[in-house]
Write a structure and sequence with these properties.
It contains seven helices and five strands, in the order H-H-H-H-H-H-E-E-E-E-H-E. The chain is mainly alpha-helical. The chain has a domain of 125 residues. The radius of gyration is 16 Å and the shape is globular. The mean pLDDT is 88.
Length: 179
């Protein structure tokens, strides 16, 4: 199964995007191709992936993961104006390299559409709305959460994960929480 529904792949995102408006247009194009059945499969996959988490953590984590995917899905489809800040094209291109690496290394049973949706939602957060890819309130081990104080977002694991190629922390707009 191809990981993208409408896009030709990440190459199209490299070649076609020069500003936030075209980026939002590309995201809308891809998200508009998802049916309710696709979303149901993704939700079932999320449920399966969370089944072994501790009960209290699992409840909050599933809520925040659903918020990240499904609220962003709705917001992308309905977002008309991308805002007034410029797209950092160098950071965006670096993000796309990370995204391509993730797709290339994913096994077939990793549910590629979930990976694509996760990364596309992260692109929306980081480059369109200037918010962290993990929604406010997302829990992390140790009882810490992503939080917003004033106009700034704070994450308890950002500094520890910035060198992790699997993590999106180096692209995230959040600052490190003082712990």
């Amino acid at each position: 199964m191809a990981p993208f529904k409408k896009l030709e792949g990440i190459q199209e995102m490299h070649e076609c995007v020069c500003d936030r408006e075209t980026l939002l247009s590309i995201l809308k194009k891809e998200f508009a191709a998802y049916s309710i059945f696709d979303l149901m499969k993704i939700h079932a996959y999320m449920e399966h992936e969370c089944k072994y988490l501790p009960p209290n953590y699992k409840k909050i984590y599933k809520e925040k993961l659903s918020e990240q995917i499904f609220c962003n899905f709705k917001n992308i489809i309905s977002n008309i104006k991308p805002g007034d800040h410029e797209l950092d094209i160098n950071q965006y291109q670096d993000f796309l390299k990370n995204f391509q690496d993730k797709i290339n290394s994913a096994a077939e049973d990793d549910h590629p559409q979930m990976t694509v949706l996760y990364y596309l939602c992260a692109i929306y957060n980081i480059f369109i709305t200037k918010t962290p890819p993990h929604p406010e309130g997302t829990p992390f081990p140790g009882g810490f959460f992503v939080e917003k104080v004033g106009g700034d977002y704070y994450c308890p694991v950002k500094d520890k994960q910035e060198d992790n190629n699997e993590a999106l922390c180096r692209f995230c707009v959040a600052k490190q929480t003082d712990i």
